[in-house]
Amino acid sequence: MSALDSSRPETTLDYDVVVVGGGPAGCSVGVFTARYDLETVIFDRGRSSIQRCAYLENYLGFPAGVDIETLYGLMHDHASTAGCEIVSDFVASVERRDDADGFLVHAQDGDPVTARFVVAATRYDGEYMRGLDGDAAMFETHEHDGEEREHFDKRYAESDGSTPVDGLFIASPYGETGYQALMAAGRGAQVGITVIEAVRREEGYPEPVANYYDWMRADTELDDEWSDRDRWRDYFDDRLPADHGLGAERLAAIREQEIDRRFAMYLSDDEIDRRSERGQRQLLEHIDDELILAAAREIDAEQRSSGT
């Protein structure tokens, strides 16, 4: 789904969003931000903690479980299809740009890149973020085996992933989120939406119309009332705070943009069928060819025996 915002300011930054970590949390962030037309890159060093699993049996949607290689391929395929760039590199450090506009992200092997937002989606070690907060509040010291050690403070981020550092978000599955892969993916979705809502506020969306969700509906749900743009205009205006501070021209642009986004969420029956077939075909790319051929032979044999 596109943000449909032609008035978004031009930027000289390389990306809108840099995600550090290509596991369930990081890919989930990227799916949401890229679908909002935010230029998103995911740095994946190929050492996600999920790769320590022998086999995953509790990830929703896989009744018999799923091997890690297949799940990893599906996650990266989904992020790429949504519009993310995936870079196989390790992020060594992140720092504020000299003009304080965004971040400079240093990779281990590639050239540095700039971004408006950085999302940390790695479970281990936040060393690459050291210095961003100035007073080192994001790290805590504790004693282990008689030695003092520093670790990233898992309580540093707010529940929505935002942090005291403007533009820095934490999607790592810490604390109450837990460490299950499915929970990490949910955490990533939550933080991705937090980033999008931050962008919408920058674009001028006042509360509560800055809130965001991403789902598709059948256009048969659009009755005569809600097929009328004026009804949506009234709905939008009814939610505006009295002190929104927007000029008439900017308010009208945001309102129409949001209505366009709402209408784009409704799909015809033909479009639903087209997307359903496309989705299943893409799933086939992650299934072993021999298994597909064996299933096809079984289907053919069943049809022959039943005379169909």
From TrEMBL:
<keyword id="KW-0285">Flavoprotein</keyword>
<dbReference type="InterPro" id="IPR050097">
    <property type="entry name" value="Ferredoxin-NADP_redctase_2"/>
</dbReference>
<protein>
    <submittedName>
        <fullName>Thioredoxin reductase-like protein</fullName>
    </submittedName>
</protein>
<dbReference type="InterPro" id="IPR036188">
    <property type="entry name" value="FAD/NAD-bd_sf"/>
</dbReference>
<keyword id="KW-0560">Oxidoreductase</keyword>
<dbReference type="GO" id="GO:0016491">
    <property type="term" value="F:oxidoreductase activity"/>
</dbReference>
